[in-house]
Amino acid sequence: MRATGVGSMPGEDFRGVVRFVVETLDLPFLPELPARGDGAGMVGRAVGLLDGLGADLQPAGWRLTDRPGLDQRRARSLLSHDLDVLEEETQGYEGGLKVQVAGPWTLAATMERPRGDRVLADHGARRELAQSLASGIAAHVDEVRRRVPGAAVVLQVDEPGLRAVLDGQVPTASGIGRHRRVHDPEADASLREVASAVRGAGARPVVHTCAPRVPVTLLSGAGFEALSFDLSLVTADEYDAYAAVLEAGADLWPGVTGRDPSGLRRSSDRFFAALGFSEDATVPRTVLSPSCGLAGSTPDDARRTLRDVASATRL
Questions:
Q1: Considering only CA atoms, which of 185, 193, 147, 146 is closest in space to residue 166?
Q2: Pairing state of beta strands 61-65 and 251-256?
Q3: I need a labelling partner for 128 at 20 to 30 A (CA). Which of 59, 101, 186, 258 fits?
Q4: Where do the H-state alpha helices sit in 25-116?
Q5: Which residues, in sequence order, are bridge partners of residue 54?
Q6: Phi then psi dihedrals of residue 134, to 5 deg
Q7: Which fold has domain 9-313?
Q8: What is the pTM of this model?
Q9: Which residue ranges make up each domain of the chain?
């Protein structure tokens, strides 16, 4: 059993956070520090990776444009700087290393088309966005592997907006209506394209969502090798679906909450026992994390949370 973080962290001391996660966690990660600006958060990082699509920041958020705007160029520059720091702080490192990128459906539900409204409203635009993201992710994985040659790279696709997309709950630009729901086959196609790009670049594709009612069958079927989720939101009537994907070969990475490491470990153990699996079968395949990102915590609280999760895995 290993420990990791979801991705976002508080504060602006990027080097300090990188050093901390490398020293503390079995599966360190490239952190996101949204306090440094829009280009440093989950969506801004992904916008910086888009291949062949321009974007810029508008009052309503990120919008696709004919060519890369100043904000997109800044996001790319910041990521390059962060990779420089990661390379310096992981000299001689060997082991797992996780990086995170916002997924195609969360981006489609968040970004706007050039003429307004969400990318989600346009079949062609959302397909093009997924293709651009998949290509950019593959190049990103190559760059991380070049800078940290001893790393076994894990690429986590963050999809907090996927459930709303599938349920038709994403508001239109006016805020009055809702975009039509995206059906599973189309959702699968974009997710599968990203997962395939990750695997083709030599990394392990993992997907994370901290929303309730995770579509575990869809995500496992799209090719993700592990599913990261908020354990506190899983209900008993979902256990069969989780058990089925675990038995089919996808690992489950529960996000846990609390301050007591022994309590965090018991939460995980009880969950897998309820699915009908023994510790011997699940512990080698399990990664614990906080239930969601920690950007809203204080720096001290965020570090304490990660230490508790790390301690839970060693009990």
A1: 185
A2: unpaired
A3: 59
A4: 42-49, 70-89, 104-110
A5: 65
A6: -60, -45
A7: TIM Barrel (3.20.20)
A8: 0.96
A9: 9-313
Read off the tokens for 149: 């040659």
3-state secondary structure of 291: coil
CB 62 within 8 A of CB 112: yes
pLDDT tens digits along 173-190: 878 899 999 999 999 999
Residues contacting residue 281 through CB under 8 Å, at least 6 positions apart: none
- Percent of the chain having pLDDT more than 70? 100
* The pair of three-digit structure tokens given for residue 291, joined into one six-digit string: 């239930």
| β-bridge mates for residue 102, sequence order | 158
In whole angstroms, give the CA distance from residue 98 to residue 156.
Answer: 7
Distance of CA 57 to the CA centre of its chain: 22
- The C-alpha angle 77, 82, 86, rounded to 5 degrees, equals 150
Strands 54-58 vs 61-65: parallel, antiparallel or unpaired = antiparallel
Closest CA to 26 of 289, 290, 292, 294: 289
Q: What per-residue string of b and e applies to 93-128 under the rule 16 or more CB within 10 Å gives b?
A: beebbbbbbbbbbbbbbbbbbeeeebbbbbeebbbb
Note whether 30 and 154 are within 8 A (CB). no
CB count in 10 Å sphere of residue 142 = 14
Rounded-to-integer distance, Cα 55 and Cα 38, Å = 13
250's tokens: 């996808």
Q: Are strands 251-256 and 287-290 parallel, antiparallel or unpaired?
A: parallel
Sign of CA dihedral 211, 50, 63, 43: positive
Q: Return phi, psi of residue 15, to 5°.
A: -60, -40
Q: Which long-range contacts (CB under 8 A, 24 or more apart) does 84-88 make?
A: 85/14, 85/15, 85/18, 86/18, 86/30, 86/144, 86/147, 86/148, 87/147, 87/148
